Amino acid sequence: MPTNVGPEYKSAEQRYRDATSPQERLEALEEMLRTVPKHKGTDKLQADIKRRMSQLRRESQSRKAGSRAQPYYHVEPEGAAQAVLIAPPNSGKSSLVAALTKASPEVAAYPLTTRAPLPGMMPFENVQIQLVDTPPICPEFDEGWLYGAIRSADGAIFVLDCSDDGLQYLEAAIELLPRNRVFLLPDGAEIEDDIRLPRGAKKRCLVVANKYDLPGAEANLAVLRDLIGSRLPGDILPVSAVTGIGLESMKRRIYDMLGIIRVYSKPPGRKPDLSAPFVLTRGATVLDAAEVIHKDFATNLKFARKWGHGLHGQMVRRDHQLSDGDIIEFRV
User: Fold this and answer.
1) Using CB atoms within 10 A of its CB, is residue 215 exposed (0-12), middle (13-18) or buried (19+)?
2) What one-character DSSP code corresponds to residue 38?
């Protein structure tokens, strides 16, 4: 019986062939198993994929048991979305995580203070966004799981250093990202799959310049802009974890960068609960919202009414594209 695998499976299979680390191979195999058609013709193929996954996991455990093994860390996503903070050493990203969330990362005035990821929840209006502090991007910390963590997140925040030492590690950090198959894109960029790259290799990114409270920071930021040019996406937002300069703007920019929207469900004849939004990806439709809110809504949906962005209770089609803050009443 033919397997009839689809393009998603073939893309994952190509990523498996091109993978350069055990973690990348495992991620590709997991995607292959998820997308392979489930019927008798693929039983042997599914078993082979599972066998290879099991072997990779055993090898990973063996490496961890060795005295010189590299650790592997995974932060389970929570909240509306997950964004990782990445930076050269001593850029102050741990201070930013502490200022924006209730997390308590270790903060010190020497490189490589952060050795493992640390998550914290950042409140933004009526949602929580997970920020993850990570080790610095530098040749001294060249571990594959770090780049895997960036690829698996919903977005990235690249932190520059506005102090007089801001150029010390920057060049190496910018070069290491594409070398480890991480490509940063500006907010709003279309992310197209590429079978030659691991899943999530292209990542929307916000660039911020920390320590803007220090003397000479404005002139240093101008130098950073000239040096970086177009190698990092978008404009640079100046902030200070110490004084709070730009932090409120940073929260909004993080939310916008992540490509998510909030939608509210309104039961017929009742008011919507505006404190409990449903979070969807930008570009989601009425049908997408119905599937998230309740599977029966999507199956039995007759029509929907929308409040927001020029509409006040008008009927909308199933393929109507939603915007942030829309209120939807489903009729089934």
Assistant:
1) exposed
2) -
Spatial separation of the C-alpha atoms in residues 193 and 201, rounded to whole Å: 9
Rg (Cα) of the chain, in Å, rounded? 22
Alpha carbon distance 200, 149 (integer Å):
10
Question: What is the residue whose two structure tokens read 């996406």?
Answer: 233
What is the residue type of 38?
K
Tens-digit pLDDT profile for residues 132-190: 999 999 888 777 889 989 999 999 999 999 999 889 889 999 999 999 999 999 877 77
Contact criterion met (CB below 8 Å) for 106 and 154: no
What contacts 279, CB < 8 A, 6 or more positions away? Answer: 80, 81, 127, 260, 261, 262, 263
Among 32, 65, 98, the domain boundary falls at 65
Q: Check: CB of residue 204 under 8 Å from CB of residue 186.
A: yes
> Total domain count for the chain?
3
Indicate if 267 and 154 belong to the same structural domain: no
Contact 320, 301 (CB under 8 A): no
Whether residue 273 sits in one domain with residue 151: no
From 231, 257, 283, give the residue that closes a domain: 257
The answer to whether 72 and 64 have CB atoms below 8 angstroms apart is yes
Question: Closest by alpha carbon to 236, among 176, 159, 178, 137?
Answer: 159
Which residues 6+ apart lie within 8 Å of 222 measured at CB?
Answer: none
| Cα of 82 vs its chain's centroid, Å | 5
> For 22-52, how does the pLDDT look when each residue is reduced to its tens digit (9 = 90+)?
778 888 888 888 888 877 778 888 888 988 8
Q: Which domain holds residue 265?
A: 260-331
CATH, residue 225: 3.40.50.300
